[in-house]
Write a structure and sequence with these properties.
Length: about 375
């Protein structure tokens, strides 16, 4: 996409957010629109499909901090100059007008004078170089997946169904009708850039004849109309690594939208949501759980049978254990793909019986008397007893 094409778009308006919207607001707006406009939810609706592509493109720019900063700066400069330009001075000191679009190309060989393209060229072409074309890379795509707690801790293979631009299966991304091939653009000799001079300055800009791709298609593919990409629904398999946490983002390189005319595809970012477990919780790589125990078990000691991710394990409770104490079971936590394994943290919590029968009441009364006779005072060191 040329710089002027970029300037003609209102990505904030496409997503319905203000220009100072936060990253979270942009993501929220995109997800809402993507759900409403998704082709699966609007079968046969060409208008909804077009809007889906528009909001996806807007999210591809505004959802990337670096791209968004470049877009904002470009819009600011374009608004300041009205799209016409600055006033430069040639070698003789006279005023020389040049169009702002001259700044949008990557700087070419400007000689000793360098040229303003050296300063601002990379702002819009994202690394294009004379002698090597860089067709437009596909936009990144975001989606979400929800896993059970056990799946997140042990890892899982999840199928994802996506509807987005993908390489055309008819022309294999070339944009040319099967049996034909794109030809090298004669205007830029395949570089995707053309250079020109104005006054003392030399500039390089995307070739208008091939739109910066470096090639031209004389007989376009009937399915993708020469773009090399079509919108289709596809199912991909995502391997979620063991130990993934709620809210973690996984990047799948090259699984996003297809680039135009064989350009690299964007990336797919999968946000993982993990369902809560009835017993376990997580603290980093450690698993935590709370086990109810009786006063007698705390006072006399016992061995508790507690669950883990792989069966049950015995945890020894020493005599005189205090309520709320946490015991550690090594190596029974969450294992990650880098070889790190956490521990199981077992916290004991005394459970008080709501009612007592006669025998239990008499026994407990006798114990309370014996406890006082022994001199034990549970509040001896409590600050409120002074």
């Amino acid at each position: 996409m040329s710089a002027r094409d970029w300037m003609d778009k209102d990505f904030y308006g496409d997503l319905g957010v203000p220009s100072d919207a936060s990253e979270a607001d942009i993501k929220k707006a995109y997800r809402k629109l993507a759900r409403e406009l998704h082709p699966d939810a609007n079968p046969g609706d060409a208008g909804a499909e077009a809007r889906f592509k528009t909001v996806s493109e807007a999210n591809g720019v505004l959802g990337d901090a670096a791209k968004r900063a470049e877009y904002d700066e470009a819009k600011r400069m374009f608004a300041t100059t009205g799209g016409r330009g600055f006033s430069g001075r040639g070698a003789g000191g006279g005023g020389q007008e040049f169009d702002l679009n001259d700044l949008f190309g990557q700087a070419g060989g400007a000689g000793a004078n360098g040229g303003l393209g050296d300063l601002l060229g990379g702002l819009f072409t994202r690394g294009a170089r004379p002698g090597g074309s860089r067709p437009q890379r596909g936009s990144d795509v975001e989606t979400e997946v929800r896993l059970d707690f056990a799946e997140a801790t042990k890892g899982a293979v999840v199928p994802l169904r996506l509807t987005s631009p993908a390489p055309c299966t008819t022309c294999h991304g070339s944009g040319a009708k099967p049996g034909t091939s794109p030809r090298t653009c004669p205007t830029c000799a395949g570089s995707g850039l053309v250079s020109r001079n104005q006054g003392a300055f030399g500039f390089s800009e995307p070739c208008r004849d091939c739109r910066g791709t470096g090639s031209q298609v004389d007989d376009p593919c009937p399915d993708c109309r020469g773009t090399g990409a079509t919108t289709r629904t596809r199912t991909i398999t995502v391997r979620v690594p063991s130990g993934v946490e709620d809210g973690q983002r996984i990047r799948l390189a090259g699984q996003g939208e297809a680039g135009l005319r064989g350009a690299p595809s964007g990336d797919l970012f999968v946000t993982v949501h993990v369902n809560a477990h009835a017993v376990f919780a997580r603290s980093g790589h450690d698993l935590t759980l709370t086990v109810p125990v009786s006063f007698g078990e705390l006072a006399l000691g016992t061995t508790l049978s507690v669950p883990t991710l792989n069966g049950r394990v015995g945890v020894k409770l020493p005599p005189g254990t205090s309520d709320g104490r946490t015991l550690r079971v090594r190596g029974r936590g969450v294992s990650t793909r880098d070889g790190v394994t956490g521990d199981l943290l077992v916290t004991v919590e005394v459970a008080v019986p709501p009612t007592l029968d006669t025998a239990a009441t008499e026994a407990l009364t006798a114990y309370a008397a014996a406890e006082r006779a022994s001199g034990f005072d549970p509040r001896a060191r409590w600050a409120g007893s002074r």
